[in-house]
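Re: folding output
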Amino acid sequence: MKLPDHEVCYRALQCRDDRFDGLIYVGVKSTGIYCRPICPARTPKSENCYFYGSAEAAQEDGFRPCLRCRPESAPDLASWRGTSNTVSRALSLIAEGALDGAESNVEKLAARLGMGERQLRRLFLQHLGAPPVSVAQTRRVLFAKQLIHETQLPMTEVALAAGFGSLRRFNETFQELFQRPPMALRRKTSNGHAGAGTGVTLRIRYRSPYDWDSILAFFQARSIPGVEVVENGHYLRTVDIDGLIGSIEVAHHAERQSLGVTIRFPSVKSLPTVVGRVRRLFDVGADIETIDAHLSSDPFLAPLVAQRPGLRAPGGWDGFEIAVRAILGQQISVAAARRLAGQLVALHGKDLPMEQRVHPGLIYVFPTSQRLASVKSLGLSMPVARQFFLKAIAEATVADPNLFHPLGSIEETVERLRMIPGVGDWTAHYIALRAIRETDAFPASDIGLLRSAGAIQGEKSTTAHLLDRARSWRPWRAYAAQHLWAAGPVAPSKGVSVV
């Protein structure tokens, strides 16, 4: 990937400029260590510095992570995002364990992305400076290091959570990389670990600005009774991963530019998946300065971006859940869609065991695609045709477990989703935006977008006109859509299907 020239990077290092945190890393040849640009250590000489666009590239070149600035706690950013959606998709899959386990390999990962292994390796080297296997290994090490610093999990559980095949391999990797055993890195002030009741709490850094109030209001308006709760500035929900169930609680720590997530889940092996989904849900990996600057270049959007700097595009916990919510929300208000979702989980959701109910509002786990595909009648108070569409999307998900995983371009993604009965252009784009995290998804026919665009320009807007205007917003049209929705009426009228 292309970095600023050496002089610019070095000045950022000298000034400890946090605008570059997560965007560049410095490898110091005199120490063999790589650091974040905000590292408090004495600034090395310029001739001893090598600059990289990712921690993976620095580690691939033989540098080991700094113990002071902790590269694992840097915001997970990349200035190239938007230019290589394939690498972004691959990183999301790697974060959820696509290269962990004996049966996982780069060839299978490339196949899931619809390309050859050699092409995927080339893209990783171009944009990250390291091949996929090295990226996965670096992320395992950094996640393990975060668990060591921030929790009191036993080392055996840390190794399992980080995706190491054995405790021996875990110990060998840390000894080789840090010249000390893992336990030597543990801080006495780490959070306690008291099992499922207390949970494991981790920090997830983001790049400021971050409009926490807007994203929390978004989730609150759409929270499914029994599954999600938003109160006192916290977001809580039940979760289901591979048949195991638990819950998460997310809070905002503005002074530390991070989210704190407390995970209560029976299997530590699922921690990377849970953290990856929380990152996706709250869109913490967005290079928001780049996105806001790009959208602000259009006078049409500039006032909206100025009003809400750091506005994120909320994701979804599970692709199937988002697809169901999109079907439920067709042609009705947000409040009505929320009530239907509550009926659905009360009828078909799995009960959360009493010992796991850390909040009285967390009662159910959202029903799986297998459950909805198998029932004869959904029993919902909604048109029969709409219920048929829900069954169809459940059956499609059962038939293709990778249905909501990133694959190909936004056009290919939308076309693939539109093959499902009941999924039109609006629904496909909405699913692509929230479930598949396509930054260029844009449901241009949405009534809320059209009304907001019309109010700004002072005349009625059409889908064709909005699509034409949105050309200059690419590849960040999803964020433009979020700004337009946020600028709309507080209480959406019937037909605004922002579910």
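--- second protein (sequence, then structure) ---
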Amino acid sequence: MLELILGLSLFLGVHSVRIVAEGWRSAQIAKRGEAAWKLSYTALSLLGFGLILWGYSQARLNPQVLWATPKGMNHLAALLTLLSFVLLAAAYVPRNALKAKLGHPMVLSVKVWALAHLLANNTLADLFLFGGFLLWAVLCFRAARQRDRINPPAAIEARPLNTALTVLIGALAWAVFAFVGHAALIGVRPMG
């Protein structure tokens, strides 16, 4: 469990610099250069992510169950992760209505993904992993909205075709991951 907590601290900590220390981040980029900042950021993120994977896999060997999962939560989680994949696609497909309306669909995707997994899972490791990501996403979204109020982003002219493509790409990615990828990468078949 220590590896999981250390990995979460490192990974989410690096991804929280903009939330808690925007000025320090800007100063470091100005002092060391953007390439050096990105290299350090990436290296620490990968180390943290590796520790998360290892720590979570070890914690799953001896799960500490915290509550009984209510019936039907797996179905709700499947629907929520579908929404999460559509939001993730919205972060990358240009000129879609979801990004135009929501502003930060990737962070919202993480929120929905984490909530879905908290609803369907019930161990201490799940609480740390998905609760940590949910808390981070809430704080990150709040900070991004505050930055948007100070410096409003350019308006996005949404196109219906791009929005339809966003939903289609997100739904297809969800189906592939839910029916094939999750079992192959995580070792759990969420769809039976």
